[in-house]
Amino acid sequence: MADQASDGQEKTEDPTQKRLEKSKEDGQVASSKELFVLTTLLVGFLLYLGLTPFFSSILQEWAALLRFSGEDGLPDEIFRNLGSSFSFIFWKSVIFAMPLFIITVFTQMMMSGSINWSVSALAFKASRIDPLSGLKRMFSMKALVEMLKAIFKVICLIGAAVLVFESQFEKLLTAQSTHLFGGVSRLSEVFLLLIIVFLLVLAIIAMFDVVWQQYQHNQEQKMTLQEVKDESKETEGSPELKAKIRRLQMTAGKRAKERRAAMDKVPTSTAIITNPTHFAVALKYEVGTPGAPEILAMGRGHQAHEIIRIGTESGVTVFRNELLARALFFAGNIGEEIPSPLYTAVASVLAFIYQLDKKEQVEEPDVDLPEDMLFNEDGKPL
């Protein structure tokens, strides 16, 4: 049966990448004790084999620290040799400790895929000293599996040792009939064989334990369907918000496309109202036709410069009026007639341009706009 979450839902979904990364930050990674035992024992065995030729010199160096001549005073010599003994033990221990430390880190890398230093795992948690939590861990399914695994490992190792001693029984019995070094040599051979057999047994146990630990870790990190949905909302946003953003993007894209297409109509416009360069609105009106002037194109910034450039190259009259250009830009729409509150203002401007095109001497009109048609550069009412 799948694990139950606190809200009663079953944890049936595989953990997401974010969940796995969060578990690593909390120090929750798959780890096999049996694999650590195997690798450290293997490295220790290889160190033993590699350092065997140096054992004689190491023993002689150690024995020299236990000889006292008393020439320089026995107490001084004892203290001097004692300090040398500590140094001797320390550096010889480093020779063994460093490879074991390296293989321990490498073993964890093989399990989790990377080196993970978790500060949060060192933080104090009340559950660690809670008696009830401790009892739950002691009598949990995980604890039962660990106990059965330990019993099985002991049985396997004892059985392997019995088989080794049975196969080498005659060699051990005849060891006492030979000389000292011959007997020690036979005992060393049996010892090496025993270690090799132990390593093989531990390798088999570690292989199954790694698979089990990976499976158990994956089961512990499984998520409910609701947790997956909540995480998706946190990382990517809610579906409603994403749909709204898509609608806004589509609307903005549609408007931008319309404005780019409207640029082709600028040469046919009657006049261009500017502010003087921040905004530009191209108007089309034919005298005698019904309806109000139509907005062919409009833009701000770079697009306004393009409208003015195209209109100037095409001989379209450019009329500068800051407030009118803003009013047309913020209140009007491309392809539609100008807003009705701007009829009078635009009519006076077009009449001025019409007379100007006929080479008549006319004064620039005073353009009056309704109060609700007055905007600043951000489109806010003045």
UniProtKB/TrEMBL annotation:
What Pfam families would the database entry show?
Bac_export_2
Q: Which domain of life is it from?
A: Bacteria
Disordered: annotated segments: 1-25
Bias-annotated ranges (Basic and acidic residues): 8-25
Belongs to which family? Belongs to the type III secretion exporter family.
**SUPFAM superfamilies, per the entry:** EscU C-terminal domain-like
| Name by which UniProt lists this protein | FlhB-like type III secretion exporter family protein
* Source organism of the structure: Octadecabacter antarcticus 307
Q: Which UniProt keywords apply?
A: Membrane, Transmembrane, Transmembrane helix
- Provide one Gene Ontology biological process annotation: protein secretion
Ranges that cross the membrane = 35-59, 89-107, 143-165, 190-212
GO cellular component terms? plasma membrane
Entry's InterPro entries?
A: T3SS_substrate_exporter, T3SS_substrate_exporter_C
